Amino acid sequence: MLLQLNHIYKWVKQGGKRVFLLNDISLDVKEGEFISIMGPSGSGKSTLLNVIGMLDEFQEGEYIFNEEPVHSLKEKQRAKLYKEYIGFVFQAYHLIDELTVYENIETPLLYKNSKSSERKALVADMLDRFNIVGKKDLFPAQLSGGQQQLVGIARALIAKPKLLLADEPTGNLNSKQGEEIMELFRELNQEGVTIIQATHSESNAAYGNRIIHLLDGSKQHQTSN
Amino acid sequence: MLRNYIKIAWRNLLKNKAFTIINLSGLTIGMTAVLLIAAWVQYQMGFERFHTHEDSLFKVYNRSTGPGEIYTWDVTSGPLGAALEKDFPEVAQSSRIYWSKDRLFSTGNTHIKAKGNDVDNAFLSMFSFPLLQGDSAHALDAVNTVVITEELAIKLFGTADVINKMVKIDNEDTYQITGVLENLPANTDFDFDYLVSLKANENLYSNNNSWSTNTFYTYVQLKPNTAVDEFNHKIKEEIKKYNAESETEIFLHPIKKWHLYSRFENGKVAGGRIETVRLVGLIGILILVIACINFMNLSTAQSRKRAGEVGVRKVIGAGRSSLMLQFIAESVLLASIAGVLAVLITIVVLPAFNQLIGSSVFINWLSPWLWLGLGVFILITGLLAGSYPAFLLSGFSPIKAFKGNFKKRGCVFNSRKVLVVTQFSVGIVLTISTVVIYNQINFVQNRDTGYDINHLIEIPLEGDIDKNFELIKNELLKNGAIEAMSKTAFGVTSEASTGSGFSWNGKSEEDEDLSFSLYRTSGDFVQTMGLNLIAGRDINLAQFPRDSTSILINEQALKKTGITDPIGKTIKRKDLTLTIAGVFEDFIIGSPYEEVKPMIVMGYKNYNYNTLLRLNPNNTTQKNLGLIEQVFKKYNPAYPFVYEFVDKSYAKKFADEKQMASLSFLFAGLAIFISCLGLFGLAANMAENRAKEMGVRKVLGASAQHVARLLASDLLKLVVISLLIASPMAYYIMQDWLQDYTYRVAIEWWIFIGTAAVLLIITMLTVSFQAIKAAWVNPVKSLRTE
Ligand SMILES: Nc1ncnc2c1ncn2[C@@H]1O[C@H](COP(=O)(O)OP(=O)(O)OP(=O)(O)O)[C@@H](O)[C@H]1O
Ligand SMILES: [Mg+2]
């Protein structure tokens, strides 16, 4: 078992009343799974991913990641866990504008204090794999959306995470670019990376081997492919 | 990692050029100001610190209890130094110094006026004024020996190699040059071109051996490891040993403190220049704080832009500490650039700075300490300036950062407001203080001197002038160059000597030690000065030989002594009976900041060293001076014709205060300028952040004017708050400063109104540029970029 959510509740107070963003979510994810989360806008997909990604807090419930109880970990330990095992891909790419493609991909390694030679090798591999060697000295603003997302994925993968979280990774892309990204995900998944993605698109969701449907913060049902 | 930080920092700086320039100039100006101030403070602290015996050299001070207060002064009697040396084994050696004297040096056809002192032969071995040629230990042993500075030597002989050459002094005696002094360093209060052996002139000083007349400064050098406090206790009564009548005590004041601590109150050191040094030091710190605040403000103002980057970095694994390090590295980089620029600017502006404040501050650029200090200073500035934005930015949560929704935004903005208010408050306090200081100077300058200060010149009474005085006077009156002329003791703007021990009919107990300003004239003093005579007549020795025991007194003296119907009444001092010939209205002699003291002007034929001339106001000054020069050349041919306008000498009394005013003017200006830079940046940032809101408002029909006002009013509010906070602070600080002056200005309300008005106008100009820019921008454009 890679991770396990048990009866997770997340709420905010509005006018003295609790508004639930996540309402009693339980979920088991095994290593090597590819899960799609679907649901209408505002249903809590991003919130759920952020909770899984340890970027966001929740008020009640248990979260066990790789046999560590995340809900009772200190900030520092959680950050360590996160740095070690999780990669994130966003709809809006979120590359650092002031860094080149090469530097963007390299940065997570800097935070892990890897050696310079090792960094060079890993980044070179990644550039090669995603076919963006020629773009390595360009800044994000000089790339197309699809290329930026490729860089975003490369950056998420550079530290060899076990779990890749992707929040509408193709939302800003045309359908052809989207399909390429999905193919890439499938490949990665076959190599053993666990993937959880949030998406609006049925066809993209179909790449997953399990689909979870959310509505108003609650898990409605799940389908397996 | 660090390279990565610096790379990003560098790219960020280039990307936001306008911000970088504003930020950098604020920091650079601040650092330059601090460098200048530090240099100045160090210069002031370094006075007399170059003497090898700096720890064992002292000046002897007198202390005496007068009516209601203890007086302290540094002019002592002649025999005191020798007596101390004889009576106390702790004293290694001592030297007297006679007041600075201008003397005429002649060799061949070269005649040069030079200032210098008569000193005892120990002087050169006590103080570290090294001789380039000659033997310090014995250079002044013999009568008629003189040592001169290299500078004077070159002026006189064209060479510094002048040892054993002869020079004629004051057209009378020939002296042998027994030493050539290195030119004096800038950081000493001694001021001489030459030193002559005091022995040579001993016979000239009538009061040489008197224990009751104070004529000399006395310096002593103690043996090493003497406990000064104990020793001061031992020597307290030294004068009494030799002069049973005297109540005067003595004490030693260390050389290291002469420059900074020269004001005494109630017999104790009360301060002096140190107060200015402290104040200026404080201003330096404040300016640095302002510059740092500017930096923090502008950096945090950009936090919205940087938030996204922070979010991403956190998501890809950055810890809070590494983010803080990144932002601090950025500010240290910027501080380093500013530091380098500040050093360059300091080198360029130092001469101008010296000119402005009338000092000779120098910086030893080769000192490793300077560079070490500078490095630490840059690091601290960088840390100070960068820590707040670093702390703030690194705290952003990535999710919020991505949504552009900062819960903290209100709080960020509030602390920025606090910073701006602090910054402006400091600037305002400095500005108001500057105005008050200028006001005080003006006030005292415009104080009625009590005499007609215009058309009045002074010529040193030297050479044959005394002998030919009547001839000169008659000739000048005849050719119409002057209206009146008088021989006096010394210049009318110099500090008068004081004396007590006078008695008169009806003298009361509490007047026992009433001290008078003492002055001498041979006649026509009231007329030449243009004083207002209240009763009696002017003294005139030429006309009334018996006037040698006549005196004039001022109104204060009349009031303090309580003498009524004064003309013909007598005032006695020991066996001397003086008759009051006239009473004149008070005039200022000595410090214009103090109240006028009771004054006695004695009719005296000798011991006058000054010629006072009232020019004919109907002629041009040039014509008058031309005529006077002819006559003086005729009757005193050996001396160059030199004169000084009394109004100019009087103006010199304001030098210290003017220096203070220049300093505070300069730094208040800088503080306000830096603050405005900050405000400009803030306005730009606000306009940028609110571009979308403004765009929407315009689409909804708001006029450009309305939008501009909306932006400007926010910032103006801050300045108004600063004014409300700073004005009372400035009031109290200046009230305190003014306490030092007996004669002082009131702090008027218009100063505050004026400062406020000017500042608000400057703010308006600063802010409105941005506001108008934002208001005019095409809404479609600003909406699209968002
Ligand atoms: N900090 C917050 N305070 C209050 N409500 C919030 C907060 N964050 C999210 N929400 C609410 O939580 C709900 C779920 O938001 P979330 O972003 O997870 O939806 P989503 O399923 O990702 O939608 P979309 O498909 O549009 O991205 C929304 O109704 C949103 O308004
Ligand atoms: Mg979402």
TrEMBL record, chain A:
Residues 3-225 form the ABC transporter domain. Gene3D superfamilies: P-loop containing nucleotide triphosphate hydrolases (3.40.50.300). Belongs to the ABC transporter superfamily. Macrolide exporter (TC 3.A.1.122) family. Keywords: ATP-binding, Lipoprotein, Nucleotide-binding, Translocase, Transport. InterPro entries: AAA+_ATPase (IPR003593), ABC_transporter-like_ATP-bd (IPR003439), ABC_transporter-like_CS (IPR017871), MacB-like_ATP-bd (IPR017911), P-loop_NTPase (IPR027417). This is ABC-type lipoprotein export system ATPase subunit. Coiled coil: none annotated. One of its GO terms (molecular function) is transmembrane transporter activity. It comes from Leeuwenhoekiella polynyae. GO terms for cellular component: membrane protein complex.
TrEMBL record, chain B:
The keyword Mitochondrion does not apply. One of its GO terms (molecular function) is transmembrane transporter activity. Residues 20-237, 426-620 form the MacB-like periplasmic core domain. It is a multi-pass membrane protein. Residues 282-397, 666-779 form the ABC3 transporter permease C-terminal domain. Pfam families: FtsX, MacB_PCD. It is found in: Cell membrane. GO terms for cellular component: plasma membrane. Keywords: Cell membrane, Membrane, Transmembrane, Transmembrane helix. The chain crosses the membrane at residues 21-41, 277-296, 323-349, 369-397, 418-438, 663-684, 715-734, 749-772. It comes from the Bacteria. InterPro entries: ABC3_permease_C, MacB_PCD, Macrolide_Exporter_MacB. This is ABC-type antimicrobial peptide transport system permease subunit. It comes from Leeuwenhoekiella polynyae.
